[in-house]
Amino acid sequence: MMWYGLLVAAVAAERVAELVVARRNERWSMARGATVAGEGHYPVMVALHTGLLVACFAEAWLADRPFVPALAWAMVFVLALSQALRWWCVHALGPRWNTRVIVVPGLPLVTRGPYRLRWLRHPNYVAVVAEGVALPLVHTAWVTAAVFTVLNAALLAVRIRCENRALAVMTTPSTSVPA
User: Fold this and answer.
1) In which element (H, E) is residue 102 found?
2) Are 105 and 175 in contact (CB under 8 A)?
3) 2-170: which CATH topology?
4) Domain residue ranges in the chain
5) Residues facing 173 on adjacent strands
6) Each residue's pLDDT tens digit in the chain (179 positions)?
């Protein structure tokens, strides 16, 4: 059980690293005239993702969930892939990546890395969904995996609509960016 706590703590540390990158990128974007959209759902997203980390460990410990090696190792593999995809997205977007919906007017859509796949506009959310299933199931916390998946689906419906609207404004030909 201790190793699972360390794994959850490592994912939490990764989230803190994301926030550091996001703050730096926010300053870069705002210096270029960016606007922020979707502030209403952001606190819900923070609470949901924080709750996932707490619930993973709490369910495994309080419900005395068994450790199933075949499931655990498969989910650790999925978790590792989700982290790799997430950081590929961060790298591809560069200073435009953020945990918030922040748009710098006049910049073209990113079409490199995982964003070159036209049929997958939001690859970072594939990573989020995979992580939300895999992390709890590493220690058979199936209730956490199920509840997070349902709540995250509702949140992503709002978030993706918000991002799509912001991206549509960003790519409108009438927008320009100061040099």
Assistant:
1) strand 101-103
2) yes
3) Four Helix Bundle (Hemerythrin (Met), subunit A) (1.20.120)
4) 2-170
5) none
6) 899 999 999 999 999 999 999 999 999 999 999 999 999 999 999 999 999 999 999 999 999 999 999 999 999 999 999 999 999 999 999 999 999 999 998 888 888 999 998 778 889 999 999 999 999 999 999 999 999 999 999 999 999 999 999 888 765 544 444 43
